[in-house]
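Researcher: Go.
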Amino acid sequence: MKYFIAHLLTGDVAEYHRSLTQTLSERFHVAPLHKKVQSHLTVKIPFHANPFELAQVEARLEELASTRSAAPLTFEGFGRFGFKTVYLDVTKSQRAVEVVRETVNYINELPWMQRAPLEGNKLHASVARFMTYKKFRRVWRHVREERPRFESSLDSLAILKKESAESPWSLYRSFPLQEPSMARTEPLRSSESAPRAVFS
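Model: Structure:
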């Protein structure tokens, strides 16, 4: 089974993101992201895991969620990765970046985990992907006329799953982070000291 770790957007920013991805898909014939996955920030790139491996990921996210607090998020304007991807940008959110990087590093300690360079370094919510340069120019011109700004919170992590190549991503499990007044920041166990999952 294929999975990835994300923060699912909620409230006004989720509604705006979903509406914009639909508009871009219909107007410029780019991939319909609103049909493929819920509005989100990617935390950990997609990976394949069996039930034993998934249990290890869940244990680590449970630990993170029980010891880390929610962090402010500011969405403002747009950015791009070359001409292939355009995204709703996350700005002025250093604490959220720290939580994401810590999550990525802790999950990547698992020896079987797939990794990618620069994971967690740039928080963003993609609005158009897999574009040709011609489509990118039209999409970029459109989004540059928008002036989005939303205040939100990175208050949970989630595992999403994909059961087949044709199916959309769906929520597997959510892990709420602590309220700032309730969190107790503690060192995370290393992969050597963390208990192993046991199946009977």
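Model: The radius of gyration is 17 Å.
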